[in-house]
Structure formats: structure tokens, C-alpha cells
Amino acid sequence: MSEPIPREARAYYDKGREAERLFGGHGVIELARTQEIILRHLSPPPGTVLDVGGGSGVYACWLASLGYRVHLIDAMPLHVEQAEAASARQPEAPLASCRLGDARRLDEPDASAEAVLLLGPLYHLTERADRIQALREAVRVLKPGGLLVAAAVGRFASLLDGIVDNLLADPDYAAIVARDLRDGQHRNATERNYFTTAFFHLPRELEDEVREAGFERVEILGLEGPGWMLADLEARWADPARRRHILDAARAIEREPTLMGLHAHILAVGRKPT
Ligand SMILES: C[S@@+](CC[C@H](N)C(=O)[O-])C[C@H]1O[C@@H](n2cnc3c(N)ncnc32)[C@H](O)[C@@H]1O
């Protein structure tokens, strides 16, 4: 089996930027909408949640503070350390555990969790067979009827970013986008902050993978809506009324197939068969 995370992705995350990502730029929409969709589907606490690829623990600590027993598993030692530190900052609701691991081979027992979050591994596992393996592990550890929430980066995310931020003016960036559009394989050989090795899904690819792994009642939801492309997002987000417009717009088109490529991320929600 290959490494849980490609070497260059490890170097990218070792720069330490991940802990802040969801609190600035369009990460704020991603965070708010992911939380909204998780709460829409998750049974009330208590319950066991595995946050696989949980990064620095933003979602895991939030769910622990709501009363869930949350185990965080991640391939990056730095992220596991950051998640442990975040958990220690909320002694009244710490994480149940934090450990290094691979989404394709979990240590958890069969049928032990109410929910599995896969908010990261599916885009860093660039081979379809590895993504199916990670999804099958999620099926295995879930209780019957258990919930999966899995994130993918949308196939057109780098193209849209390239227009919004004029990154397409850089021929290296344009070449990265050309490959993303061709086969979804995102590779960044530059030192510039153009993300790292990943696979960018079409919505139907994500849906097929989640169904093939054994999930049912699968829904594919667009996450950010058009707001993530706003040049003045920070100012609009700071104003409650305008923030509501951004979130309402995302919600209004979250299931619209003709606009699915406009979101930076898409989520798959599914259930283990009962
Ligand atoms: C962009 S971060 C997302 C972190 C967090 N889930 C979030 O949504 O903010 C992607 C995370 O997936 C983790 N990851 C990637 N491949 C993985 C694998 N095969 N097993 C476990 N974690 C993995 C990375 O180490 C990283 O922490």
C-alpha cells in the first residue's frame, strides 16, 4: 500500500497553514456550510464520531463541545499534535482520542461509530481504488444506518480561482489548471501556493465512488455557492445581513446539478445500509 499521504502533500501541510485555513478567505463559508450540513444529518449527542483526516481538529473539537465522543485520525503528525493541543484548550469537552492513521486502514472496531467524517482524504487519495478502500473502511466502522459526510474538491475549483485571483496569468498555474480539467489530477511542481497533490472530482465521480463502496441514500451537495469567488468576501462576511445572503445563496443551489461545478467543494452524504 502506498504512503497515506503523498510526500509533497506532507511537505505542504508541514508549512503549518492548515490550522488557520477555515477562519479566513473562503474557508469561512466552507466551515459554516459543512457544520450546517453535518448538523442537518447527525443524530443528537451523545454518539461516536470518527473524524478521519480531521486535520488540526476544527470539526472534531466543535463536535466534542456539542457532546459527541470524537476520535480524530490523521496522516499528518503535525495535525495530530495541533488537534491534541486544541483538545487540551477545551478541558470540559476534550476529544476522546487523537492519533496518526490512514483512512484506508482504520484501527477502529467494526460497527462502532454513529458517523464518519472524511473531510480531506478523498481528495488526497489520487487513485480511485484507494478512495474506494477509504470509503469501505468507513462502511466497516459505521453502525448500521450510520452517517458518512465526505468532502471532495470540485473539478473546476482551480479554474475559478484562477479567474478570480488572476492566477491564470502565470503559465505554470495555467498548466496546472489544464491538467485539472483534463483528468482531475492536481499536481503543483512550483514553490507557489497552488495547493498540492490531489484529485478534483466531478460530482458524478464522487457519487459513483460512494455508492460503489456500499453507501445508500447518497446525496451530493454543493458547499460554498457563488460567495467563495467574491473579491470583497471578508467585508461582506463581517456584515450579518450580507453574510446571510451568501449562505442563503449556497443553500439555494446546493442540489442544483447544472451549478454543481461552481462550488469549490462538494460533499457526499450517505448511510451504511441497515
Ligand atoms: C485540507 S485538510 C482538511 C482537514 C479537516 N478535515 C478540514 O476539513 O478542515 C486534509 C487532511 O486530510 C489528511 N489526510 C489526507 N490523506 C489522508 C489519509 N489517507 N488518511 C488520513 N488522513 C489523511 C491530511 O493529513 C489533512 O490533515
Structure explained in plain terms:
By secondary structure, the protein is α/β, with parallel strands linked by helices. It has a single domain (7-264), classed as Vaccinia Virus protein VP39 (Rossmann fold, 3-Layer(aba) Sandwich), CATH 3.40.50. It is 41% helix and 20% strand. The chain is built from 11 helices and 9 strands. It has helices spanning 7-14, 27-41, 58-65, 77-88, 121-124, 128-141, 157-164, 171-183, 203-212, 233-238, 240-252, and strands at 48-52, 69-74, 97-100, 113-118, 142-154, 185-186, 198-201, 216-222, 265-271. Strands 1, 2, 3, 4, 5, 6, 7, 8 and 9 form a 9-stranded mixed β-sheet that branches. Strand 1 (48-52), helix 3 (58-65) and strand 2 (69-74) form a beta-alpha-beta unit. The radius of gyration is 18 Å and the shape is globular. The chain starts with 6 loop residues before the first helix and ends with a strand. The model has no long low-confidence stretch (mean pLDDT 97). S-adenosylmethionine binds next to helix 5.
CATH architecture classification:
3-Layer(aba) Sandwich
Number of domains: 1
Instruction: Tell me the strand percentage band.
Output: 15-25%
Which cofactors or ions or other ligands sit in this model? S-adenosylmethionine
| Number of helical regions | 11
Mean pLDDT: 97
Low-confidence stretches: none
What's the main sheet like?
9 strands, mixed
CA-to-CA gap between the ends?
30 Å
- CATH class category: Alpha Beta
Coarse shape: globular
Which homologous superfamily in CATH is the superfamily? Vaccinia Virus protein VP39
Structural class: alpha/beta
Helix-strand topology string: HHEHEHEEHHEHHEEHEHHE
Helix content: 40-55%
Please give the radius of gyration in angstroms. Answer: 18 Å
How many strands appear in the DSSP assignment?
9
- Per the CATH scheme, the topology name is Rossmann fold
